[in-house]
Specification:
There is one protein chain. By secondary structure, this protein is an alpha+beta fold. 20% of the residues lie in helices and 24% in strands. It is built from 14 helices and 35 strands. The strands form eight sheets. It has an eight-stranded parallel beta barrel with strand order 16-17-20-23-24-25-26-27. It has a seven-stranded antiparallel sheet with strand order 1-2-5-4-3-6-7. Helix 4 packs parallel to helix 5 and helix 7 packs parallel to helix 9. The longest helix has 19 residues. It is an enzyme of class 2 (transferase). InterPro entries: A-amylase/branching_C, Branching_enzy, GH, GH13_cat_dom, GlgB, GlgB_N, GlgB_N_E_set_prok, Glyco_hydro_13_N. It catalyses: Transfers a segment of a (1->4)-alpha-D-glucan chain to a primary hydroxy group in a similar glucan chain.
Length: 763
Amino acid sequence: MPRKTSAPSPAPAAPAKKTSPTAVAVPETGRVDAATLDALMRADHGDPFSVLGMHHTGTALVVRALLPGAAEVELLDALGRRLCALTRQEDSALFTGAVPRRRNPFEYRLRIRWTDAEGRALEPVVVDDAYRFAPLIRDTDLYLLAEGTHHRPYEWMGAHPQIHEGTGGTRFVVWAPSARRVSVVGSFNQWDGRRHLMRRRHECGLWEIFVPQVGEGDLYKFEVLGADGVVRVKADPYAFRAEVRPQTASVVQRLLPGVAIDETRRQANALDAAVSIYEVHLGSWRRGEDGRWLTYRELAEQLVPYVRDLGFTHIELLPVHEHPFDGSWGYQPTGLYAPTSRFGTPEDFRAFVDAAHAAGLGVILDWVPGHFPTDAFALAEFDGTHLYEHADPREGFHQDWNTLIYNYGRTEVRNFLVGNALYWIERFGIDGLRVDAVASMLYRDYSRRDGEWIPNRHGGRENLEAIEFLRRANFIVGTQRPEAVMIAEESTSFPLVTRPPSQDLQSGGLGFHYKWNMGWMNDTLAYFSRDPVYRSHHHDQLRFSLMYAFSENFVLPLSHDEVVHGKGSLIRKMPGDDWQKFANLRAYLGFMWGHPGKKLLFMGCEFAQWNEWNEAAQLDWPLLEQAPHAGVQRLVRDLNAVLRHYPALHQRDVQPEGFAWVSHEDAQHSVIVFERRAAPDEAGHAARVLVICNLTPVVRHGWRIGVPQAGAWRELINTDQAVYGGSGVGNGLLESEALPWQDQAQSIVMTLPPLATVMLVID
């Protein structure tokens, strides 16, 4: 039987609503009042989700879309069927309309015909409306973020590409508690702050939005209408990637998968391990033929094998956080969560770390939680208030570096920084963080005159909030990622830097694993820079470090700071003619590798580069074609080899039982002798290495030295060997005699080579 094709009978009419004689029934259109429309058009509406998107007004289901630059807008259902046209309210960019025959909210899309710069209509495109999606942040995470105890805030903050309700896009979340309005702007919305006004989560001052069709590689920033009424366009504090300078936009980037805890790496970072660190600035280690930077992957192919071949155990990188100014070397970061795009993508940096680990090398990052630059696109006055920094310049401004100081007393700021420490370890497999400028964090009067700083709540100079932050950061890293280490660049006598904090983090030590021994560096550089004729008067500079060598767990640093800004290279610091300069440097390195403490050497020092470091150019690699420079490099390689293979030189670096003086009083001849001891074996025997330094250019024949053990002693290292560029003065096997000397039961007679360090072992 044929179906009827006539129109269906109309539904029964609803009862007529009683109205006053002058009332006129107006169909629902979704139009908003003038004040709301004005706020939307000025991008000054604090709750855009209450207006935009799909809403039930009580009489109808309406859709509103704020689309500057649109000519026509149509409403579609989930299958792409047209439901109605949205009409422009007056001459604004707000399009509104009532949904026919629908009472409950549903999934919908918009078909938009945009206009070009000349006002011509373009082909229509179909998009999902950002305002039809519900909030994404879970209540538990909101609570932890508000409390400042979320160990991994980066999992929620920033930009995260994802599938939400079956739609691909990116979730954006930013902290701006005092902002009147926040928008995400980017390449996907013509950087127009009216297009994607964000939803405020009042619980903790977060703003969020899910923007469909936005994915990896899209550029974005946050447009913030501050509490002061000023609009600021800010890079994302949690961005995982950024544009190459001088551009400053953040880049949508997926969060890399986590790296499992590695027991092998934990053992390699332990206090009893051989640790020898090669410090590197990636932009100036080596460059391409055209002077360009090498990429992370090219550095994995070139730098990693080089460091492994020289026998170092770790690579330490000057900061790879994103930073706008090359001359800051990364120490003025604007993107703590973004590996600098100068050398590639986050995936490329992860590949570099993986290559280092495959070669048996650890990777340490210089980490800068002490200050940040004043650049307008970054953290400064982020929401119109001093959000990340202190408001009072006596607390919040570094006079030395013209930078801003984090407000460590604010829980969200501490959370931002502690989460960043875990981020590098958990998402890139970083083995440790060397925390920059710790001394400047610990003291409120650091580099300030009277009246330029504010005492703490007890009237003292210590920065109690920074101390608590450091304890918390070290505790969290130590408990969450026990394979990683935290290293302090700390130049004062602040106590217990490498001792654990109390259980409540309110007292005890700071919790670092290691501390740079800046005192050792300053004293020994001053000593070795002197003409040998004057060294007898400064003998204490050579031995004073052993008065406190075991008060902390020390790293001995000859870092980038010692070979820049007019200080000259290591080789140029040495006195005498060229031969003596090289001899002094070789003796210094031998002394350093024999001294208790882990080792750190800046790039270029391993082959005695003449020029001081220049971040804008590569190292002077042609010098390796000259024998003296190649000799220093070979010495460093051999020092690292004996450090690895002789436990006496590393196992008890932080224990007084691992060191003993044999002779330290002979200032007249500038000779010192000491021994390094390994832990006793089951039979009670402790392997030993004897270290002898003759720091004058005089060969000393028939020199008697007390030895702790009878037997035949042989040279393990002699920095005067001809193969290193020395004069070749050395010793064969040295049989001990039962002649007590220097408080030892045995002694040997040897020749001391000039300006040299000799290491002896007994087989």
